[in-house]
Design goal:
The chain has 303 residues and is an alpha/beta fold. It has two domains: 141 residues, Rossmann fold; 143 residues, Rossmann fold (3-Layer(aba) Sandwich). It has ten helices and nine strands. The strands form two sheets. The chain has a five-stranded parallel beta sheet, covered by helices on one side. Strands 2-1-3-4 form a four-stranded parallel beta sheet, with helices on both faces. Strand 3, helix 4 and strand 4 form a beta-alpha-beta unit. Bound molecules: phosphoric acid mono(formamide)ester. Phosphoric acid mono(formamide)ester (CP) binds next to helix 2.
Length: 303
């Protein structure tokens, strides 16, 4: 049984297959490959894009989906997450999609190896389908030769699971990643090039991935005033000028703090393309885990 806790569980061939399947799903109406399959979602943190994107992806492939609202579940009566998961698995779904604030929750459930577990975001550790859809969006824009592409990740990097997953996947694909952030947002340990000023990388990058401040993960307020942060890190017309830098963001975007209103309307801004692509990439991930991976061995975390 194969799970998706982060993309390091995927072979190079599987990543290629996800990108190819996503392209096929995008250009041709898909057959109901997952007809008769049932997925359960368990989102312990809020989501607009990921949860609805998984639901659209599942339904486009003919699968059914049940959402358990954790705020109304028996976890509130003291049932452990493992027991909740085991009870859901007793209903024989074909996969469980989980988002949680704890970094190790998806891997703990995957180790129980009852149904394929798909991580839809865990703490600041990993958000694999976001990384895959970001990679797909780069492939779509730049073509297959993305080795050597220069990507700067800007913002609250230390608290971002998107940054963590993007960095691991992009480096594996030969993409050069640099980090731009004020000190409190910078990872304390990293072997990647680090910059405090956005101006220092503007002529050195092909892509900027902007991130919002992950306020829900700050133990105490880091900045009193995000307009002062925006003066240095917001992606604006003045900063971009006529450079052909592609702008991405996983969402939700804090307007005029992360990216200005004008740049959100600019053709260089891929934010809604990322969301559109997310559906096709998640269709490809569901196909891989629910159909294709069945023929492989039973190592719980790896093929
Ligand atoms: N990109 C992303 O994870 O967005 P949501 O939190 O809305 O799912």
């Amino acid at each position: 049984m194969q799970h998706l806790v982060d993309t390091d569980q995927l072979s190079d061939a599987q990543i290629r297959q996800i990108l190819e399947d996503a392209s096929r799903f995008k250009t041709r109406k898909p057959a109901p490959l997952l007809s008769g399959k049932l997925l359960i979602t368990l989102f312990f943190e809020n989501s607009t894009r990921t949860r609805s994107s998984f639901e659209v992806a599942a339904k486009r492939l003919g699968a059914d989906m049940v959402h358990l609202d954790p705020s109304r579940s028996s976890t509130k009566k003291g049932e452990t997450l493992e027991d909740t998961f085991a009870n859901l698995c007793a209903m024989e779904p074909d996969g469980v999609i989980i988002r949680h604030s704890e970094n190790d929750t998806p891997s703990r459930l995957a180790e129980m190896d009852q149904v394929p577990v798909i991580n839809a975001g865990a703490g600041n550790y990993a958000h694999p389908t976001q990384a895959l859809l970001d990679l797909y969006t780069l492939y779509e824009w730049f073509g297959e030769e993305i080795e050597g592409l220069r990507v700067a990740i800007v913002g609250d990097i230390v608290n971002s699971r998107v940054a963590a997953s993007d960095i691991r996947l992009f480096r594996r694909m030969g993409i050069e990643v640099s980090l731009v952030a004020p000190k409190p947002f910078m990872p304390p340990v990293s072997d990647l090039p680090q910059f405090e000023r956005l101006e220092d990388i503007m002529d050195e990058v092909d892509v900027i991935i902007s991130l919002r401040a992950q306020l829900e993960r700050h133990k105490k307020p880091i900045f009193d005033d995000y307009s002062a942060y925006a003066e240095h890190y917001c992606i604006t017309e003045d900063r971009l000028e006529d450079r052909g830098i592609v702008i991405m963001h996983p969402g939700p975007v804090m307007r005029n703090i992360d990216i200005s209103d004008e740049i959100l309307e600019d053709p260089r801004c891929m934010v809604l393309d990322q969301v559109r692509n997310g559906v096709y990439v998640r269709m490809a991930v569901l196909k891989l885990l629910l159909l294709d991976a069945k023929e492989y061995g039973s190592d719980p975390l790896h093929r």
